Predict the 3D structure of the following.
Amino acid sequence: MMTVGIIGLGLIGGSMAIDLKRRGFADTVLGVESDPVNEAAAGKIGLVDETVSYDDCISRSDIIVVAVPVGIAVKMVCDILDRFKDGGYTSKIVIDVCSTKEQISLATRYHPCRRQYVPTHPMAGTEYSGPWAAMPGLFDGRACIFANPEESDPRALHTIEKLYATLNMRPTYMDASNHDVHTAYVSHISHVTSFALALTVLEKEKDEKHIFDLASGGFSSTVRLAKSNADMWVPILTQNRDNVLRVIDTYIEKMQDFRNAIADYDADRIRSLIGEANRIKKILR
C-alpha cells in the first residue's frame, strides 16, 4: 500500500497525481495546496484522493513530492528532512521536481537524512499553470534527470526510478552542477527569449495594430512560453543566474551576427548562418 503526498498541485504535481493513481503506483494520493482557490479546484477536479495539511502529508506519506517553485523548495526539502530525523522516519522518501539542482543539492548535502532525498527533474511541461493545467500523459516519453544519484540510498533511488517508469519517463543521471548548465541551454534560454520577443512585439503593437491579426503559427509557437508563470521562473533564473547569463551572452552574439549580415545585405553570410543553424535537425527530429 503506497501513499504518495504531493505538495503543490499545479501542472507538474497535478499531472503526477493523475497518472500515479491511474497507473497503479499509488494506492492513495494526498495533496497539499497553499492557495485556497487552487485547493478547491484540485478537489473539484479530483486530482487527489484527499487534500491535507503539510504536517499530515509528511506523517502519512511514503513518498513526498515537492512540486513548488524552486525558491520555496530549497527550504521545504530541508524542513522535510528535519522532520524525518526528528520523527524517526527512516523509510520515507522525499523528491523534488525543480528545474535547478545545484543550490538545493548544496543545501541538503550534509543533512543526516540526505540519503532519503532523491533530486529529480522531469523534463516536461507546458506554458500553463495551476491545477486546471494538469493532464494525463504529460510525462510520457520525456526524460527525467536524477541529480547526484550516488548521494541517495540505493533503495530510495530504485523506488523513485519505478515511480518515473510508471510515468513512462526515460532516466538520465548527472551531477547537479552539470544539470544546471544543460538546462540553461535547453530550457531556460528558451523562456528568456520568448519573454523578450513578447515584450518586443507588445511594444511595437502600440503603433501597429495589425501585428497580432497577422501573427502566424511560427510566431505563436515561438512566443507561447511567454505565457509562463513569473512565480515559477523568477527563482529559476535567479538561482541559475551565472549559467543563464553565459547563455544569454552567446545568444546576443549570434543575434549580432545576424544583424550585421542583414545590415550589410550579405546574403552569403545570412545563408551560412541559417545553414549552421539547420544542423539542429540532426539533434531534434
